[in-house]
Amino acid sequence: MSAIKDFFKKKKTEAKFKLAGGGHKLGETSAAPAPRKPAKQQERAHPSQSSQQAGAAALNRFAGQDQKDADFQKARQKALIKEKARKELEKEQKIEQEIAKIKEVYGEKEDVEVEGPSHLAAQGVYFVSELVGGEPASREVMKQRIKDFLYAQLEGEMGLTAVLIIHTCNSPRDRVELCVETLSKYIDNIVNNPAEPKFRKIRRSNKAFKERVAALEGTQEFLEGCGFQVRQMEGPDGQMEDFWVFPEENTDFESLAAMRDTLKGAEPVSAELDRGLIVIPPQQKMQRELPSDFFSISKEELKAEQTNKKEMLERESMLRTKAMREKEEAKARRKYKFCLIRIRFPDGWILQGTFGVNEPVSAVSEFVISCLETPLPSILSDSVTGARLGEGDYQATLLDLGLVPASLINFCWDPEIEMDLASQGGAPQLYLREELKMGHI
Length: 441
Fold this sequence. Notes:
By secondary structure, the protein is α+β, with helices and mostly antiparallel strands. It has helices at about 1-20, 50-105, 140-150, 160-170, 175-190, 205-215, 220-225, 255-265, 300-315, 320-335, 360-370, 415-425, 435-440; strands at about 125-130, 200-205, 230-235, 240-245, 270-275, 280, 340-345, 350-355, 380, 405-415.
């Protein structure tokens, strides 16, 4: 144990000796070391003009290198965009080649120049009205026909005809709705409070009445049809004024309430789009130019806009992606209000009709069925893409399907019908009704 204690005692002594610092000779006076004098700081010399020029040249070299790197990145990005656009164009060209092969197999015949009825694909957009009858006419002419017809019916049935005049001959729609609401409130007050004289009269000079009711066509005739009469009565200022009055002796509140309900539930008499049915025989040249009625803007405005954008589109043609082109095409299609649809039958005859761009594809199917000699199940497909129209969604609009402003559709029988015809020895097939073909001749 003593050896261990001696070992640790020795270690402690050595540690104390090391902490004592540097030694000195005996007899030598101990003194604190003299402090070091700080080194004198040398003044920084101002760079000469040549040094400044050399530094500026070095900075310019660095800046030039940065610009070269930025230009290289831009050139690389541009090359990538061009390469992507080139691949998309190649893909589209392949699709077009496949379409051309399909057309070749289908047997598309070359157009033969014959004298047509007009240089336009359609004479215009026309409307018809089942209520009014008569030949198809332009929208404005048909509106006037409907208005004249309604006013001619006032003598026989004033109240009900006046309801149709209010809804049909006034615009905008919110103004008509406010008028209907105001008249209904007048009648409600009388029906719910038959003993209150104040509810039986309406001052004609009242501002709200003049703006909401009297300013619209058909309102005077409606009030007369309900049983109101114009009478002179004392107004708020003591002067005699004209009032619409529902007489006290009139207690037919049931008929009055019925007129109110009729007014609230009525719809305007509107003209329907005429299909403009045209039958084109085989090999007759199809006109392609659309009349101005098809455009939401005027034809001149559309041509001017196309001219202004032509150069810009040519410059960007190599850099626009497919998504950008589709977006531009969709925007252009929204300029149309109507669509020209042509249905090509296997025997070469073509059926043409006019449709609204927001009509469902089922409207085209119904139009075709109404013209068939034998209305059997059939298939309509886009002549360009080969896609079946309305497959899975017969409520899709013509605008949604990209058929605007004009499209050629192929007709064929349902496969089961084709098999039945084949089993009968391939008898001659009749598609369009014979009177439609004769009407063309």
